[in-house]
Amino acid sequence: MIARISIRVVAWAVLAYLMLPLVVILGSSLTATEFLAFPPQGITLRWYQQMLHDQSYLAAFSTSTMLALAATAASLLLTVPASLVLARYEFRGKAALTAVLMAPLTLPHIVLGAALLQFGGYFGLTRSFLSLLIGHTIIVAPFVLRSVLSMMTPEQRALEEASSDLGANPWTTFFLVILPRIRPGIVTGSIFAFISSWINVELSIFNTTADLNTIPVKLFNYVQYTIDPTIAAVSGATILVAVLAIVILDLTIGLDMLSDRR
């Protein structure tokens, strides 16, 4: 009994420690002062209104959202077939190919950003949405690949063979047997991919312009010259969007269902 209570106390303490920065950010975004202050000195939504009336922030939010969605979709189209090949076939160079596909997890993103800037210059792709999309797809694809590969179990292989023995063609087997089984990995990998793309600064900063800016780069440039509660309001809006996305995911798919299938 004492051990169980101690574990719960430690767990709640860790959770409170992790939530504290979020509370500070949200509290600072509501302060009535012209500077960051916590606890907030007065309560106001002025800084959120100022953010919503600033077209540069709205454009940055739009760019970050479209970029993260596009990079996540592109990584799914590339890594789901790749994971099937890596899990189902043995061929020379398989280990090397897996290492190459996972390499962006270990390489510094600032190095990838500089390399993409130099490489894109040969094709006229520098500082464009396409160059950002290519770079973000590279850095988020390993998250989807690892999540989907973890779902490729021997038991699933047996189900695929049974489906083929019963006369199903490869496409039917994929959509009715494989896809439902790997869905938790796809959803989990997509969440990590979207978040990683959304918060990326190091790679994005090499390929953004004044008219093509992501919200993390916008904040990075903003804090170099001004520090006011607008920064906290933008961060608070990002936190609220993330929480809303998790709530929608739980209502539509069910996070408990994902954990049970894993």
Brief account:
By secondary structure, the chain is mainly α.
**Known CATH architecture of the largest domain:** Orthogonal Bundle
Tell me, briefly, the overall form: globular
Strand content: under 5%
Low-confidence stretches: none
Name of the CATH homologous superfamily of the largest domain: MetI-like
CATH structural class of the largest domain: Mainly Alpha
State the order of secondary-structure elements, H for helix, E for strand: HHHHHHHHHHH
DSSP summary, beta strand count? 0
Q: State the end-to-end distance.
A: 30 Å
Please give the oligomerization state of what you see.
single chain
Mean pLDDT: 80
Structural class by sheet pairing and helices: mainly alpha
Largest sheet, in brief, is: none
Q: What is the CATH topology descriptor of the largest domain?
A: MetI-like fold
C-alpha-based Rg, rounded: 22 Å
Number of domains: 2
Helix content: over 70%
> What's the total helix number?
11
Write the layout of secondary structure elements.
Layout: H1 2-28, H2 46-52, H3 55-88, H4 94-102, H5 109-121, H6 129-149, H7 154-165, H8 170-199, H9 215-222, H10 229-252, H11 255-261
Helix pairs in contact: 1-10, 2-10, 3-6, 3-8, 6-8, 7-8, 8-11
Structure, described:
The structure is a single chain. By secondary structure, the protein is mainly alpha-helical. The chain folds into 2 domains: 1-43, no CATH class; 54-258, MetI-like (MetI-like fold, Orthogonal Bundle), CATH 1.10.3720.10. 73% of the residues lie in helices and 0% in strands. The protein is built from 11 helices and no strands. α3 (55-88) crosses α8 and α7 packs antiparallel against α8. The longest helix is centred in the first third of the chain and has 34 residues, at 55-88. The protein starts with a helix and ends with a helix. The mean pLDDT is 80.
